[in-house]
């Protein structure tokens, strides 16, 4: 198979030919049709996440066709399209798993971090953590849903039921969950980097009632804010934008340090929450909701061997929506 492989942190991925992998017990072999490129992949490659297995095939927004099933797999069959997300395995027996919080598992496995991911033509996955995509005919369009969509959905659930939702950092996750907010009858307020008129225009085209830079004050106080940009300085900015009782949800796996801020902007029962990974229940919910909400992803396609270019373009913000690799 073909694969883009990380051998050392902060080094370019290497294009390699590898033997096709074989699924073990309870695993499936999937022929990758598309794999979106996530900011978490940047955090892995750049060393912000410090414990990847090396060498590593990154990528965790995978859509593909089941080619072969290992012993014990009963929920999937060859020929079925599936999606494979970041959460690749949990122990099932720690206190978090037993209480329905498998996203906080003590000994998890993560696709494209602790196990090889989808920057390749084939990937092996735990069958219990792959999701049927029977109603999704376009693998490129579906790939960003497997992390940007799922984490966006979990972030929105944690934000609560408020009507006015601020979204800081209008990239892959934001452009998906904004559509869900509009479908639910909420008002979206989009915050972008200063001067990023393209992102602001995209936000408005997707139904945002207001779009501006992250240092601007929205015309109305927000019920909640979701921060997708990995910038700690946005936390005080979001706190200032939300009304009393409002929530600020940090939707990324990594963020720069949050600067000191006065207690007065937290007071009034405002809350700061973080999102950690996802549960399989989140995936089932969102993949059922997305077609009803009419979610359309905006994608830029790269061939697999140009994965380094896609990562560089993501780092520099050279495209709107999501980048997708196609083997």
From TrEMBL:
Annotated coiled-coil segments of the chain: none
GO cellular component: cytoplasm
Sequence ranges assigned to domain Enoyl reductase (ER) in this UniProt record: 8-325
Entry cofactors: Zn(2+)
Keywords of this entry: Metal-binding, Oxidoreductase, Zinc
Origin superkingdom: Bacteria
MF annotations from Gene Ontology: alcohol dehydrogenase (NAD+) activity; zinc ion binding
EC number from the UniProt entry: 1.1.1.1
Keyword Metal-binding: yes
UniProt cross-references to SUPFAM superfamilies, sorted A to Z: GroES-like, NAD(P)-binding Rossmann-fold domains
Top EC group: oxidoreductase
InterPro entries xrefs: ADH-like_N, ADH_Zn_CS, ADH_Zn_typ-2, ER, GroES-like_sf, NAD(P)-bd_dom_sf
Matches recorded under NCBIfam families: adh_fam_2
Protein family membership: Belongs to the zinc-containing alcohol dehydrogenase family.
The protein's name in its UniProt record: alcohol dehydrogenase
Species assigned in the record: Rhizobium daejeonense
Classification lineage: Bacteria, Pseudomonadati, Pseudomonadota, Alphaproteobacteria, Hyphomicrobiales
């Amino acid at each position: 198979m073909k694969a883009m492989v990380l051998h050392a942190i902060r080094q370019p991925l290497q294009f390699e030919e590898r033997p096709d992998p074989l699924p073990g017990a309870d695993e499936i072999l999937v022929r990758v049709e598309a794999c979106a490129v996530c900011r978490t992949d940047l955090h892995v490659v750049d060393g912000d996440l410090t414990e990847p297995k090396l060498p590593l095939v990154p990528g965790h927004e995978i859509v593909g066709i089941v080619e072969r099933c290992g012993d014990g797999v009963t929920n999937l069959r060859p020929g079925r399209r599936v999606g494979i997300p970041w959460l690749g395995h949990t122990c099932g027996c720690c206190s978090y798993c037993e209480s329905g919080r498998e996203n906080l598992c003590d000994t998890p496995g993560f696709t494209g971090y602790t196990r090889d991911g989808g920057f390749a033509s084939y990937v092996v996955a735990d069958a219990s953590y792959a999701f049927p995509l029977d109603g999704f005919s376009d693998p490129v369009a579906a790939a960003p849903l497997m992390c940007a969509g799922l984490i966006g959905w979990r972030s929105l659930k944690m934000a609560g039921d408020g009507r006015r939702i601020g979204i800081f950092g209008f990239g892959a996750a934001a452009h998906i969950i904004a559509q869900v907010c509009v479908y639910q009858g909420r008002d979206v307020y989009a915050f972008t980097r200063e001067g990023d008129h393209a992102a602001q225009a995209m936000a408005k085209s997707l139904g945002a009632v207001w779009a501006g830079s992250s240092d601007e004050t929205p015309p109305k106080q927000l019920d909640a804010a979701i921060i997708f940009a990995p910038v700690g300085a946005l936390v005080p900015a979001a706190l200032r934008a939300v009304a009393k009782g409002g929530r600020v949800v940090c939707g990324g796996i990594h963020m720069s340090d949050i600067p000191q801020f006065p207690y007065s902007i937290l007071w009034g029962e405002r809350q700061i929450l973080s999102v950690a990974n996802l549960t399989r229940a989140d995936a089932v919910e969102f993949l059922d909701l997305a077609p009803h909400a009419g979610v359309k992803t905006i994608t830029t396609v790269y061939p697999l061997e140009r994965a380094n270019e896609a990562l560089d373009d993501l780092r520099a913000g050279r495209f709107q929506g999501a980048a997708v690799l196609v083997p």
